[in-house]
Write a structure and sequence with these properties.
InterPro entries: Beta-grasp_dom_sf, Mopterin_synth/thiamin_S_b, Sulfur_Carrier/Prot_Modifier, ThiS/MoaD-like. This protein is of the alpha+beta class. Helix content is 17%, strand content 27%. A hairpin with a 2-residue loop joins strand 3 and strand 4. The mean pLDDT is 93.
């Protein structure tokens, strides 16, 4: 079994258009490093300076990892990760 990572449309250029990919690791950081071995450039779009980018939201089984242990959040086989870019804007 592996960890499923759901990829937003804006990052699918790194996954050859795949909506979800699978990876392994015991923490979110390790998982992102594992994914980067097959989907080069994906990690740097999510991580900056060893921390999650400010405008990228990451959820572990529907829980925001910022309220867990951030990039050090433990993950396990069967977990589901969702990466969502923050959306801003609106009418002035």
């Amino acid at each position: 079994m592996a960890i499923e990572v759901r990829i937003p449309t804006i990052l699918r250029t790194y996954t050859d258009g795949e909506k979800s990919v699978h990876g392994a690791g015991s923490t979110l950081d390790e998982l992102l490093a594992d994914l980067d071995t097959r989907h080069t450039g994906l990690r740097e779009r999510v991580v900056d300076g060893g921390e999650l980018r400010r405008f990228v939201n990451v959820y572990l089984n529907d829980e925001d990892v910022r309220f867990l242990d951030g990039i050090s959040t433990k993950v396990a086989d069967g977990d589901s990760i969702t990466i969502l870019p923050a959306v801003a804007g609106g009418m002035a």
